[in-house]
Amino acid sequence: MINISQLESSLWEAADQLRANSKLNANEYSMPVLGLIFLRHATNRFNAVKAEIEKGLSSRGGKKRPITIDDFKGKSAIFLPSEAQYDRILNLAENADIGKAINAAMKAIEDETKMLEGVLPKEYTSFEQDLLYNLVRIFDREELRNATGDVFGRIYEYFLNKFAMSGAQEGGEFFTPPSLVRTIVNMIEPDRGNVLDPACGSAGMFVQTGHFVENRGEDASAKITFYGQEKSDTNTRLARMNLAVHGLEGIIRQGNTFYDRWEELLGECDFVMSNPPFNVDGVSPEKVKTDSRLFTEKKIPGIAAKTKAVSNANYLWIQYFYSYLNQRGRAGFVMASSASDAGHGEKEIREELIATQAVDMIISIGTNFFYTKSLPCTLWFFDKGKPAERQDKVLMIDARHVYRVVTRKIRDFSEEQLQNITAIAWLYRGQQERYLGLVGEYLNQTHHEAATIEGVLIQLEEPLVKLTQLLHIFSDRLGASLPLLKDLPEVEGLVAEDIANQNIETFRATLSELSEGIQELTAARVGLIGELQVHLAWFAENNPTPNPSPLALRGDLAPAKAGWGSATNEAQKHCAARFTAFIPQLKTLQKHINEVHKLATRAVELAQKKLDARKQETWDAKELKKQRDALDTARDTAIFAIKSTLYVKAQVTWLQSRFPEAVFVDVPGLCKVVTRDEITQQDSSLTPGRYVGVTALDGEDEEDFEERMREIHLELASLNEEAVDLAGAIAANFEELEM
């Protein structure tokens, strides 16, 4: 099975290393590299579909007819002429012009596929031959040749992400971070009809919509028509390539959305999703004043006295999104945080929007979610089909304190954080069964992780015992004279033998601590596992559907959506409470594992550094290294199993502590349902923080401390890197001055 994360990382590292040693900058490099990923994926899909088609072809005289482009229609694959197939390029003669061959391949694909006409990169002749050959080989790894599913879609998105982070495109505007895209998709659930993004960038909203529909077991291409518009030619090309890589189809056109409206889509879209450019200040009021998409009385929020242009176009975008929706349509879009409280003409427009009763949810997002900007943002959601009981209400969520640290400069949502935020919306909509399903999934996963702990502790025991035995053998055979240590220099009046004896004493004391630590670990393990087995048996017996045995729980738990996902809220709370009793034991066990690992490592290092163990016959260096490596691996596996169990259980606690009755309630500092009257009292503000208030910080535990320390470490590492770069720049400047 492919480890997609490792593959993504290794591919990027290899490709970026080539760029670093070439004459190309990131801007020149990004599109051609994405083109090669596209070509590799297109060839894989072509070969797979071709094999399927060939099975069904009729034959005459023992020969099957040739495959044509018509055979590929409706197969989520592009027909590739022979000159456009990856293997042909890979196997070109050494003296062939590979850049010219790839350009020809891209042109041949465009000739056969209307959506890609004029889209694919054809700048390969500007690459050095060796660089291009190496790039082609990088994307021909065995894992990629045999890849199935959406592996290439993931890789394509990963490279888009990395190019955005490296500034390969101006402002990084072509790429919306996946966390924000997924939040929007999860909230509006685009599953049918016309889906529009009038500032579509690289089509990330469409791709995630495709994933959303496919995860439901349905065909996105059959259910949805995608419409996208982009001002930039580069972004338009990226969007079409991205759709093609994911087997999706759509109409992507180039145009400036401020002036180029999609007339036939006005009032006809089931869903609108977008991440428009914020705070644009150069739009001509003369060109937009009669725009039918501007439905409010104010229409244009304000005109700058100096430039005579629209002072801020945020509320033009917001009106566009509303106007494209049909009578039951939903919209989700990213917006500058300042727009939620903006005054003057923007406030007047906001008041009219609120009066439509279509404003459904507002979510505040913290800083550092974008790759090129550190500012916070807000997600807005419209729903023209809100039921009567929610017509006068808006859900406010303040998620500024919900995030995962990726680097010092980048944050995102973990999978679980994203699901938990979505669950708040489910409860707001009265969809209790979905909330209970998620809690049930967490309970299932918690017990699945817990069921692996016994096995990983057994794996830890063997190398720990063997390593300790080897250390004791070495200790027992240490001679009193220690001839190999007689040459130690005299230090502070102590002769060599005194120093040696002190070192032996320290080593043996550490060994004694290790033995005591192992005894404590064994006692903690025996106590925990015995009680945990009883609980796992109870969990299996009381699982609503199906009823896996305790033995099955230790291996492969029942599918997540079965079992406790169908239990009542009271049953889930009872189950969670029973498991909570194990949390102190698991944390204690974790400490014991870390302690014995630390002592074992220290004992080995003392023997090697202070007792010159490598020069003594009683030191089995090869076997000791083998057992030490095995202990490192076993320790990491055991800690991971415990942390995974605690982490998933923490998600159950997070939800149940905030929504104990499995119904929506206002949670201070997190969420609140507000009425139009309350919004009016707050000067028509749509900033969640003004409504949800604040709450006391949760009690800190070891995990919180570790996360804060990780953030500090990341920040220090980044600052050190910046200091090195600055020092290099200063040195270079001095050299130039001296010349």
What's the number of extended β-strand segments? 13
The percent range for helix content is 40-55%
Structural class assignment = alpha/beta
Q: How do the strands line up in the largest sheet?
A: 5-4-3-6-7-9-8-10-13
Percent of residues in β-strands: 5-15%
Mean pLDDT: 86
Number of helices: 25
Ends distance? 57 Å
Silhouette: globular
For the largest beta-sheet, the strand count, sense and barrel status come to: 9 strands, mixed
Radius of gyration, taken over Cα atoms and rounded to an integer in Å: 31 Å
Descriptive account of the structure:
By secondary structure, the protein is of the alpha/beta class. 54% of the residues lie in helices and 9% in strands. It has helices at residues 4-20, 26-56, 86-90, 98-112, 129-138, 142-145, 151-165, 178-188, 204-214, 220-223, 233-245, 285-288, 314-324, 344-355, 415-428, 432-451, 453-476, 496-542, 550-553, 569-580, 583-610, 621-658, 676-681, 689-692, 702-738; strands spanning 59-60, 63-64, 193-197, 224-230, 250-254, 269-274, 325-336, 359-365, 377-383, 393-399, 404-405, 411-412, 671-675. Helix 2 (26-56) packs antiparallel against helix 7 and helix 16 (432-451) packs antiparallel against helix 22. The model is unreliable at 168-172 and 547-561 (pLDDT under 50).
Question: Which descriptors would you attach to this protein?
Answer:
single chain; 739 residues; alpha/beta; 9-stranded mixed beta sheet; two-stranded antiparallel ribbon
